[in-house]
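Quick one, T. Sequence first:
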Amino acid sequence: MRYTVPDYYKKFQCLAGFCPATCCAGWQIVIDPKSLARYHKVKGRFGNRIRNSVNWKEETFLQYEKKRCAFLNEENLCDMHIEAGPEMMCATCRKYPRHIEEFENEREITLSMSCPAVAKIILEKQEPVTMRTAEDDRQEEEAGFDFFLYSALQDTREVMLNMLQNRKYPVHLRMAEVLALAHDVQSRIRSGQIFEIETILTRYEKGEMALIRKLCAEKGRVHAEELLCLLDEWEVLDEHWKKDVAVWKQCAQSLHPGNIPENDKEQMVVYYLYTYFCGAVYDGDALAKAKMAIVSTLIWEELCRAEEAQKGEILSFEERVELAYRYSRELEHSDPNLNQMEVQMNTREETSFPRLLGILAARAEVDRNE
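Structure tokens:
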């Protein structure tokens, strides 16, 4: 088995009671079967508390005021951890904010942007992200796993990450090039010509696509405020989210240019692309995965721009981090929202290939002139 982690993986340290947004509230914490069986056997007063704090039908912890886990105390610490130790916690709580994507004989382990400490680590990183791997003797076979497609997706993602971290060009231009590559790769997947993907990657690596000249001739919207409408179709997790989105949508209509550092945008799109792109091995929709990464970055940019327009001043780094982990929570802590966004990548005019390419081209032109 091969394990892959980003180079900042070991930098994570839980903020515990000092966290500005505890991970023990706002979403249902699903309990794994082994932990449920263990909770049934705990004796004494604490055992009674455990059994009275679990929704056994839904296999989740009960939630109280403001969707706080039944074990989250007033100091924002976990009573289960305090009373019984970390080994008593369920798999979700032990692993978070670690996010694991599973493939045949591969485990890709990332840190979730939804955690404030992780969002800070990612956005403050100035160097390009590199991945580190380790292997052990474990082997597993997954019925029906398309290893040929998976290898092509891995190779494609590697080229995309190199593009995104090539700082000779504005970040929106890099994103546009990744979008174009995803579009070409998807056409080969759809036609069953996966063997041609290697040739496509070679062309992009050599720069033969002349995308820079092409994009300079494209016309599009400088801002992407129309993408905020996608959020209206999502399940709402944070009680303040819906009201804030309404304000952001209104403020995003201003001509305020925004002051988001190039590095922040790069780290954001790299995070989402690395986390989700190879999942296309299960549904064959590589273009939707690339769009999700790009659209998530554009939406976050719009939230920052709208917040600056509302406040009338440049956002601090901490404020940009907060918008990053709030957006991530609404998207990544909800399977319905992840599924809905993938549907939106394929069905909404705002996320069509020409529309997104136009937005990125216009933004790249602004980036050049700033």
